[in-house]
Amino acid sequence: MKSICSLAALAAALVCAPANAKHHAGADQAAPDAAGAAAFVEEAEARLLEEANRAARAEWVYANFITLDTAAISAAANAQFTQVVVDGGVEAARYGDVDGLDYDTSRKLAMMRTGIVTPAPTAPGGAEKVAELKTAMEGVYGKGQGTLDGKPVGGNDLEAKMGTVRDPARLQEMWVSWHDNVGTPMKDDYAQFVALMNEGARELGYADAGAMWRSNYDMSPEDFAALTEQLWQEVKPLYEKLHCFTRSKLNAEYGDDVQADSGPIRADLLGNMWAQQWANVYDLVAPEGAGDIGYDLTGLLVKNDYDALKMVKTGENFFSSLGFEPLPQTFWERSLFTKPADREVVCHASAWNLDNIEDLRIKMCTKINADDFQTVHHELGHSYYQRAYNRLSPLYLTGAHDGFHEAIGDMIALSITPDYLVEIGLLPQNKVPSADKDIGLLLNQALDKVAFLPFGLLIDRWRWGVFDGSITPENYTGAWVDMKRQYQGVVPPVERTSENFDPGAKYHIPANVPYTRYFLSFILQFQFYEAACDIAGWEGPLHRCSFYGDKKVGEKLNAMLEMGASRPWPEALEAFAGTREMSGKSLLRYFAPLSEWLDQQNAGKTCGW
């Protein structure tokens, strides 16, 4: 399955929250005024950039060489950066109500308060403790192993096995061992981490860290929560149809004793450690006579002697076809494309810009398969976005909002159509699937894109509850299991207890990467994709569109990317897609033929859970 990536660990915070800096003037200050605010912002941005780059390099080394010493170095750099972030946010609050602020100063002051991903208390040692806890949890995850047939298996390999093994007992072993070995040990650390983050958020004027996160979208926390609910309700009926169909097929494959034909789905049967995407079980659910996807992309990559480097070069070529400049030579010299044989690394795919100018890199333990082929395109979307806005001032060096950053690469990945594969020589023209294969193509895509939607929503909804205190440490896993059942309609293969910490078995929890960005990106990528197809003049079925090679698309896309965070996100969206509203309508139009077909397949069934 396609890895849902983020900017790993600190890199995530740097891209999402460069909106933080330290005012290191003396404590005796005159009453704040517009001139003082502008001077503070200028000084804060310079300090931010310096500390962000220092911390990013320490984090890069740690992610690629996980040792006791690199953990200490990374924690120290993180602590210093966090202190800069928090001090800047506290100071920015002094200027928030000053009259006469120009647009940029006002916007940057707001970003400095709302863009803090990992707030920490200002008391001595607060930032150090937050950094220490975060580094420790990331280390547990990075070195984590599960078992298969009683033998230890590293996380990256275990995730791949979850997509290919079909024996329910072995799937259960992998699922349970990973969640027990990785999540459970960090439970106490996470509880301390949350308490410290909340203390830091309250010092910045927020009720808790969750309210702070929700404030980072050019709207109030309440309005943002309402927007995500509105988007979910828009796409929820399609998810429920897919769930109903998939459950029926798994019941036919495994029988009632393993998977009933009613109620929730057993999480480990869905081809993914977290049941977040289900494309790996396509072979189990593809209905006879409905058409398959007509080709095997993994097989094509292997047959054509693709290695990790060639996969990345192919991704670069897509962006070059749109008119973007090639990646710098340093990208090829400094990136990590494959898992080293001699050490453990954080394999979670991520994109980095270590100097916030041109030191672009990606880090992933690439496997030669269709999932990682898409992941490469996704990660490069981050890289080209990072470079597009690198001429802006430091506080604007990020996406219009974090969902934009995740959506760009996935928009490109949606254009990995059969016609595109023909263009790059991977698929012979006579092997392009005919129209009768469209249901197979769409079903395979829906198991990736539609299946993800509730998962993308619930991660932060769980954290919002943790942050506001409605979910307490003794109920961390109970609430997690309940929310996965409520939103996804999935349940663990075995009973979980309050001793477990299943959320910690998902990378973005110990790394403290906000997750609603992914939900938003799975909405936005279809809006961007449909807009690109319109610009390219595509007239066929939306899901068959590829805008590979269209310079008009590239020109308009780059214009949006260059805006970075300098304008509110509705303006950025309008610049490319012609609308100021995020909406699931493009996604629904893309999957419309499948939705109608699922209605037919589910006729007479009792759907829901």
Describe the 3D structure:
With 609 residues, the chain is mainly alpha-helical. It has 24 helices and six strands. The strands form three sheets. A two-stranded antiparallel ribbon has the order 1-2. A two-stranded parallel ribbon has the order 3-6. It has a two-stranded antiparallel sheet with strand order 4-5. A hairpin with a 2-residue loop joins strand 1 and strand 2 (151-154).
Question: What is the element layout, followed by pairings?
Answer:
Blueprint lengths: L9 H7 L17 H31 L3 H27 L8 H12 L11 H17 L2 E4 L2 E4 H8 L5 H16 L3 H17 L5 H6 L6 H34 L10 E2 L15 H4 L11 H7 L4 H14 L7 H6 L15 E4 L6 E4 L6 H19 L13 H13 L3 H6 L14 H31 L7 H13 L1 E2 L24 H20 L15 H11 L7 H9 L7 H6 L1 H10 L8
Parallel strand pairs: 3-6
Antiparallel strand pairs: 1-2, 4-5
Helix pairs in contact: 2-3, 3-4, 3-5, 5-8, 10-18, 10-24, 13-15, 15-16, 16-20, 18-19, 18-20, 21-22
Beta-strand percentage?
under 5%
Question: How many individual β-strands?
Answer: 6
Shape category: globular
Helix content: 55-70%
Largest sheet: 2 strands, antiparallel
Q: What is Rg?
A: 23 Å
